[in-house]
Amino acid sequence: MARVYNFSAGPAMLPTEVLTRARDEMVDYQGTGMSVMEMSHRGKHFVGIAEQAEANLRKLMNIPDNYKVLFLQGGASTQFGAIPLNLGNGSGKADYLNTGHWSVKAIKEAKRFVDVNVVADTKPENFTTLPAEGETTFSPDADYVHYTPNETIAGVEFPYIPDTGDVPLVADMSSTILSRPIDVSKFGVIYAGAQKNIGPAGLTIVIVREDLLGKSRENTPAMLDWATQAEADSMYNTPPTYAWYMAGLVFEHLLAKGGLEEMGKINERKAEKLYAAIDGNDFYRNPVEPAYRSWMNVPFMLADDSLDKTFLEEAGRQGLVTLNGHRSVGGMRASIYNAMPEAGVDALIHFMNDFAKRHG
Ligand SMILES: *Cc1c(COP(=O)(O)O)cnc(C)c1O
């Protein structure tokens, strides 16, 4: 079996231990004589899997009891519309921080439903920086504030949680969830597509404070209404059962590895050494203001972009794959989520130094 170090931004690597276990349980799940994929979502075996996955996520993230955890479909992008439908029923106004590609998309969708007030905007800086802590002024009458704690494409990450007072804070954590401990009680809603740091594509996690449920607009489709989904234990219709099961295996794996405290330490170390390698060599460059550099997505440019293709080809031959940057940014991007072993980052750094020596 040859596994490569896959630096894809998503769908991304999964822990080999998790894939192996899924393989072992694929055809006959724990003596049931069937695959998890073949189970009724309302049968006792799957309900057990679903409940265990939620319990483990609650434990991992230390989610308070007054929050519901939903296991939905449609990706983070579906939530871009669900958020204003569920929360934008008061003043009909919402504050958004515009800090990158995904904020742009969230704002575009929200504008269909609410008055969007952009309270911070780093587009003029090409999304290479973030507002400093305390710098952003929020509207007291907004129904909610939305931001993207980690922007997957530009590689910027908030090192703080914005203080929005009594206005519920909504966070698109698609590319940073489970990367370090966070205080869930500071948020009204946390949501994330699974395919970066949780499990396979097809599953979307929504963590929502209970007092925010049941306030949706009258014309909200049932599938997008968090209260409907919460009442149905995320089984208003057939949920993405296999992806839910796989996410459960990942949660179990992370707990066994020491939880998010331990993940945070490893992720910080992985990111620091990669940025040090970039900063320490004139051949490479990362455009992000150091205080706001992402632990998860590390874009970097070669001094001579005519070498990009050679870099990717040579890296690929060494089992370092999907390093191409997003088409809107160019250059390279190494996504180093939880499942990227530290040895993968070390191998990348070794390759980068060697490549620079030969071509610099
Ligand atoms: C990948 C990503 C999305 C889009 O997720 P889908 O699940 O494909 O809709 C949204 N926000 C962020 C921050 C992402 O990284």
UniProtKB/TrEMBL annotation:
Domain Aminotransferase class V residue range list: 4-348
Cofactor note: Binds 1 pyridoxal phosphate per subunit.
Cofactor dependence: pyridoxal 5'-phosphate
Pathway: Cofactor biosynthesis; pyridoxine 5'-phosphate biosynthesis; pyridoxine 5'-phosphate from D-erythrose 4-phosphate: step 3/5; Amino-acid biosynthesis; L-serine biosynthesis; L-serine from 3-phospho-D-glycerate: step 2/3
Entry-annotated residues carrying N6-(pyridoxal phosphate)lysine: 196
Record-listed pyridoxal 5'-phosphate binding positions: 76-77, 102, 152, 172, 195, 237-238
Gene3D superfamilies linked to this entry: Aspartate Aminotransferase, domain 1, Type I PLP-dependent aspartate aminotransferase-like (Major domain)
Top-rank lineage group of the source organism: Bacteria
InterPro entries: Aminotrans_V_dom, Aminotrans_V_PyrdxlP_BS, Pser_aminoTfrase, PyrdxlP-dep_Trfase, PyrdxlP-dep_Trfase_major, PyrdxlP-dep_Trfase_small
Main location group: cytoplasm
Protein name, as recorded: Phosphoserine aminotransferase
EC number: 2.6.1.52
Binding site for L-glutamate: 42
Location of the protein in the cell: Cytoplasm
Keywords attached to this entry: Amino-acid biosynthesis, Aminotransferase, Cytoplasm, Pyridoxal phosphate, Pyridoxine biosynthesis, Serine biosynthesis, Transferase
GO cellular component: cytoplasm
Assembly: Homodimer.
Family that this chain belongs to: Belongs to the class-V pyridoxal-phosphate-dependent aminotransferase family. SerC subfamily.
Reactions catalysed according to its record: O-phospho-L-serine + 2-oxoglutarate = 3-phosphooxypyruvate + L-glutamate; 4-(phosphooxy)-L-threonine + 2-oxoglutarate = (R)-3-hydroxy-2-oxo-4-phosphooxybutanoate + L-glutamate
Role of this protein: Catalyzes the reversible conversion of 3-phosphohydroxypyruvate to phosphoserine and of 3-hydroxy-2-oxo-4-phosphonooxybutanoate to phosphohydroxythreonine.
Organism the protein comes from: Guyparkeria halophila
Pfam families: Aminotran_5
GO biological process: L-serine biosynthetic process; pyridoxine biosynthetic process
GO molecular function annotation: O-phospho-L-serine:2-oxoglutarate aminotransferase activity; pyridoxal phosphate binding
